[in-house]
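User: Design a sequence. Structure:
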């Protein structure tokens, strides 16, 4: 009787071991098909076994990670291709213009007045080229993991006043008045003053390109944040513009040949994030509101 009992146990164990071995072969076969790109199906098992279920679960998790990595890799490659195409196009436009005017200057039929006009145009296009190269260089630096900021405590109000004063001539030429509203005096924040100045300059430069009316600039505190808001009224922006405004190389009017690289607001957002802050845009009816938010809690920067 005992012999029969042990015999049955042995048979059950052998059957179970055979089932385990069969299931392992099944998992191996599924992995082989997946690795050979013959299927995108995840691993499934037929045998109810906790250890095998955990193995399949972990394998499927790894598959998810690999797929996510591959998707991100493809996105980066596509972004790189688009970046190269955009950079090439933006550099080619002023460069082609410069070469064209140089060729015309070589002509013996060009009078002095035309020569001066061509030279002025070449200088203008060269300045445009310089701005483009500066933007591309700044972008390449910011996106380096080794790029560090010099974070120190500074007076936010004074920085904003100085930047706005530096744009006085630009505001005057565009017949735009910056209305400044200060709800809190002497707001002290931990920032890289050069980086933050670049952020505000990029926002104002963007406003000067497209704004059709006066601009309101509000400086205030909201709980643990310092806020600088820029409000442009009666814009012709839409939800698509708002969604893409801080993307690399985004331009509202891609057909218009202006001084925009489509990098200014992208650089602004990157710098704000590196300062433990953020920048965003919202549309209220047709009014554009760009908000720069800085964390007044300096503990994170102090540790860094």
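Assistant: Done.
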């Amino acid at each position: 009787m005992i012999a029969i009992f042990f015999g049955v146990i042995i048979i059950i164990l052998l059957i179970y071991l055979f089932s385990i071995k069969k299931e392992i072969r099944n998992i191996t076969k599924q992995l082989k098909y997946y690795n050979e790109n013959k299927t995108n199906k995840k691993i499934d098992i037929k045998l109810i076994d906790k250890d095998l279920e955990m193995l399949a679960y972990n394998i499927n998790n790894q598959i998810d990670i690999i797929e996510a990595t591959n998707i991100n890799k493809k996105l980066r490659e596509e972004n790189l291709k688009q970046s190269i195409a955009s950079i090439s196009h933006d550099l080619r436009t002023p460069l082609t213009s410069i070469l064209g005017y140089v060729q015309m200057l070589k002509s013996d039929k060009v009078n002095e007045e035309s020569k001066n006009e061509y030279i002025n145009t070449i200088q203008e296009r060269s300045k445009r080229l310089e701005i483009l190269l500066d933007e591309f260089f700044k972008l390449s630096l910011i996106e380096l993991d080794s790029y560090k900021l010099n974070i120190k405590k500074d007076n936010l109000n004074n920085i904003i006043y100085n930047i706005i004063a530096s744009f006085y001539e630009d505001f005057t030429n565009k017949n735009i008045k910056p209305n400044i509203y200060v709800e809190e005096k002497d707001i002290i924040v931990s920032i890289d003053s050069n980086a933050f100045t670049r952020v505000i300059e990029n926002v104002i430069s963007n406003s000067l390109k497209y704004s059709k009316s006066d601009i309101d600039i509000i400086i205030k505190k909201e709980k643990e944040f310092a806020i600088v808001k820029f409000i442009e009224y009666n814009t012709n922006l839409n939800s698509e513009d708002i969604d893409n405004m801080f993307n690399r190389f985004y331009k509202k009017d891609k057909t218009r040949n202006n001084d925009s690289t489509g990098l200014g607001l992208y650089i602004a957002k990157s710098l704000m994030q590196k300062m433990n802050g953020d920048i965003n845009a919202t549309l209220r009816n047709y009014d554009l509101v760009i908000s720069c938010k800085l964390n007044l809690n300096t503990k994170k920067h102090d540790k860094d």
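The radius of gyration is 31 Å. The domain at 1-147 is CATH 1.10.287.130 (Helix Hairpins).
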